[in-house]
Amino acid sequence: MPDMSVARNELDHERSYVAGLYQRLDELRAEKQRQLDQVRRTIAAGSHQNRSERDAFATMYEDRLAQLNAVDDRLVFGRLDLDSGEERYIGRIGLSTEDLQQLMVDWRAPEAGTFYQATAFERMGVRRRRHLILSKRDVVAIEDDVLDASMLSESDSLQGEGALLAALNSRRTGQMSDIVGTIQSEQDRIIRSPLPGVVVVQGGPGTGKTAVALHRAAYLLYTHRDRLKSAGVLLVGPTNAFMKYIERVLPSLGETGVVMASIGSLMPGIQTIPEPDEAVAELKGRLDMADVVKRAVANRQRIPAENRKLNVEGTILTLTPRQVRRARDRARATGKPHNEARATFVKIMLRELTEQLTEKLEASSGAGNNADRSYLAEDVRTSRDVRIALNLAWMPMTPEKLLRDLFAKPAQLEAAADHLSAAQRELLFRPEDAPWTEADVPLLDEAAELLGELDASAGRSAAEKEQERRRDLANAERALENMHATLADAGVDGVLSAEALAEHNAIADVRLSAAERASADRTWAYGHVVVDEAQELSPMQWRLLMRKCPLKSFTIVGDIAQTSSAAGTHSWQQALEPFVGDRWQLEELTVNYRTPAQIAEAAVRMANAAGLVVSAPKAVREGRWDPVIDRVEQLEPSLLAVLPEELEAVAGGLLAVIAPERIVDSVRRAVSAVYSARVGQGAGGLGQDIVVTTPRESKGLEFDGVVILEPAEMLRTEAVRVGDLYVAMTRPTQRLRLISTGEIPEGIEG
Q: Which of 451, 449, 520 is nearest to 265 (CA)?
C-alpha cells in the first residue's frame, strides 16, 4: 500500500501545478480581453472600411476568447512521466509561458499521443501515466498507470480507483461529456487515422462511436488546420435532439468552428418534420428518385402542341413548336442548370421573334424603307403575349415550387415517375401546403442542383469575380500595413492575413464565421464530413452528403444492428458502393463502456431471439441491478407507481421513459401531470431529470436509468423494428426496467 504522506505530497504537488495552469489561462483571457477592448477603442470610428478592419481583428480575439472560455472545465487531465525525466502535462489546449516554455500539451498534438497509446508491453518511453481527476479547478484525485515495472517498488507510485470507471459511473446531465481524458487505445487509433478517404467506424451500443466521431473532428481540425479552416468540417447527426445533446463537446475540446446539423436541416431556410410514413420515407430515399427529379425538371421545358399566335404592339407573330424545340435543344446543350440555361433559351427566342417582327413590318411598309427598328427588340421582350408564351415553355423555378407541384399534381408525378406503380405514386401524393419532411431534403437539394440560381442572368463571370477578389486583396494588404503600425503603437498584437481581411470585408454588413457562412450556403464544399448514426441514412441522403464533400473525405460511425428506418441500410457496402466503390476502410469498436453487463447481455439475447444479428461488444463492468420486468394490467398507473423508485435509484441523474410512438404523447401528459417542469424531451434540460421519448428520438443518447413501455410493440410491425427495442434497451448506464401489459419479448429474461 502506498505511503499516505507520499500520496498527500503528490496530490499537493499536482494541485499547485494545476493552479499555475489556471493562472496562465486567466492571464491569457485577460490579455485577449484587453487587446479586444483596445482594438475597439483604437479604430472605433472612420470609414466603413476602417470599421470592417476593426471587426476583423475583433473577430480574431473573440474566437480566441471563446476557445479559452470553453476549456475551463477539466483544463488538464493527464501527466506523462518519461524515461528522460520529463513530466509532460496533457490538456485540452496547449499552454506556454510568455517566454514560450511549454506548460501543457494539447491532447491532439503528436507528443500527446503516447498518453493514449502507451502500454506496459509497448511503453513508448513512458514510465507512468497519471490521470488527474478535477472538480471545477481543484485536483480531487489521482490515478496512476505504472508502465515501467521498476517503479512499482518506488514509494511515490500511486494507484487510483480508475478514471474510466469514475467517468462511466458519473450521473448524466442531459449534455454529452467528452472523453478526452479517458480515450482508450482502440478509440485513439481511429481518432488519429489519416484525413483522406472514407473511414467507417462500426460499433455496438456504448462503444463510444459518437465520442470517437467528435474527437476525430477536433483532431482533424487541429492537425490539418490549413486545409480545413476555410473549407470546414460538417458533423451530421440523426435528430435535432441528438445535436443539442452533443453541442458542447467540440467547444470543450478547443474547437468552435464545426458546422453541426441534423440531416433534416441541410437545406438552408427549410424547416422539416420527421417523415410520418415509413413507406413514403423508403420511396423518397431510393436513388432512382434522382431520376424522377431530373425528369420533373426536364418536363418544365415544354414544347407547345401547335402554333401559337402572339400580339406584339398590334402585329401578330407565330410561335411554332419547331422554333421552341430548336431553342430548347440549344439551351440544354450548354449543360447549364435549368434556370441558367433558360437565359439562353429566352435569348434565342427573343432574337427569332424580333427577326420575324422586323420582316413583317418591312414587308408591310414596302421596299426601300430604312426606318430605325432597333426598338423592336424591346417591344418583343416586354410583350405580354411573348412573356406568357416563353414562361409556359420554360418557366423559371425554385426547388420548393418544383417539389410541391410534383407531389400535389398526379399528372406531373406520373409523367416523371412512370416506373412507380399507381399505389406508390398515391403514397407520394400530398397537398401543396403540406410541411416539408426530412425525406424531402435530399430531393430539394437535387432539384436545386438541377435548377441552379433563380436569377442566373444577373450573375457575374468567373473572370469578373476573380478580378474583384484580387482588387479586394490588394486593398486589404494596403490596409494591413497601416493597421499593424497603429495597433503596435497601442500595444496590441495579432496576426491577420490579407486574405482573411479581404474575406471578412466581403461580408461587411453581417460578420459571420466560416462555419456560419457554410451552414447558410447549400453549395458549400466541406473539407471533411463526419456522419453519426449513419446506418439510418437513405441512398438519397448519402447522395446529398457526398455532394457536400467533393474530396470524399468522411468519417462514418454507426451500428448496422441499430437500423430502425425503413430507408436505412443493412450493409455498409450497400450504402457506400454507389458513391465510393470499395474505397473505404472499416474499423470496429469492441468494448461497451456505457451499458452494464447484465443489461447488455439481455439486449443481445432479445435481438438474437428476434432474428437480428448484432455485435456483442464486451462490457467493461457489472451493474448494481439486473433488468426489472413488470407485467401489468394498466400501463400508465403502473408507470407512475414505480417512477419514485426509479428516480431514487438514479438520484441526481437522468431517467428516460421510452415508449412506442403510438402512446408517447399520452404517457408524456400523464408523467407531466405529476412531475410538471421536471419532464423534458430529447436529452432533457436544466432542472429536467425525466425524459419521455421514443426509441427513434433516444438514438445516440444515454441515460442513468431507462423505463421501457410495451417492449413487444416495438417488435410487431416489421423486422427492421427489432432495432428500436435494441436501441431502447441499450440506452441506460445504470438501470433498466420494462413494463408491459402483454408479452415480454423472448430472450430478455434469459
A: 520
C-alpha cell at 329: 435543344
Q: Output the nine-digit C-alpha cell for 111.
A: 507528443
Q: Report how far residue 104's alpha carbon sits from residue 71's, in angstroms, rounded to the nearest whole number.
A: 13
For 741, the grid coordinates are 401489459
**d(Cα 281, Cα 442) in Å, to the nearest integer?**
11
Average pLDDT over residues 464-474: 63
Which SS3 state, helix, strand or coil, does residue 289 take? helix
Cα distance from N-terminal residue to C-terminal residue, the chain = 41
Of the candidate ranges 123-137, 361-375, 630-644, the one whose mean pLDDT is the lowest: 361-375
The mean pLDDT value for 298-303 works out to 94
Q: What is the three-class DSSP state of 599?
A: helix
Nearest to 599 by CA among 465, 502, 469, 737: 737
pTM over 0.90: no
Report the distance separating Cα 467 and Cα 676, nearest Å. Answer: 61
Q: What is the largest CA-CA distance in the chain?
A: 118
b/e 588-620 (16+ beta carbons within 10 angstroms → b): ebebbbbbbebbbbbbbbbbeebebebbbbebb
Task: Report the C-alpha gap between 694 and 721 in whole angstroms.
Answer: 12
The 10 Å Cβ neighbour count of residue 183 is: 23
Long-range contacts of range 512-520, CB-CB < 8 Å, 24 or more positions apart?
A: 513/59, 513/63, 513/257, 514/229, 514/230, 514/232, 514/257, 515/232, 515/256, 515/257, 515/258, 515/259, 518/232, 518/234, 518/259, 519/259, 519/261, 519/268, 520/268
- 21 pLDDT above the threshold of 50: yes
Residue 436 has φ and ψ, to the nearest 5°, of -70, 145
Grouping H, G, I as helix, E, B as strand and the rest as coil, residue 503 is helix
| Residue 175 per-residue DSSP state | S
**How far, in Å, CA of 414 to CA of 426, rounded?**
10
Give per-residue burial for 473-495: e unless 16+ CB within 10 Å, then b. Answer: beebeebbeebbeebeeeebebe
Task: Indicate if the pLDDT at residue 131 is higher than 50.
Answer: yes
Residue 205: per-residue pLDDT: 83
Give the sign of the dihedral formed by CA 426, CA 431, CA 432, CA 438: negative
Cell 424531451 sits on residue:
681
CA distance 205 to 395: 50
Q: Is residue 15 within 8 Å of 140, Cβ to Cβ?
A: no
Given the DSSP bridges, would you call strands 138-146 and 528-531 parallel, antiparallel or unpaired? Answer: unpaired
